[in-house]
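Sequence in, structure out.
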Amino acid sequence: MYQVYAHANRNHCIDNVLLFPSVPDATRQTHVLAGSPSTRLWVEFLNLIMDCCWSQRLAAKSLRE
């Protein structure tokens, strides 16, 4: 979390995403970083149980679900 915060501050990134492998009962979260109310952090979970050659399209679909 600290690394994302440092990257967001240093590079003036407004939208930031942390990706984790999906686990049961995990829910998407959105946070506003302390000291920077215009900087948002999304915590997203990606289904990694796919073919090793999965495409960007499948990953994007997994994030939308």
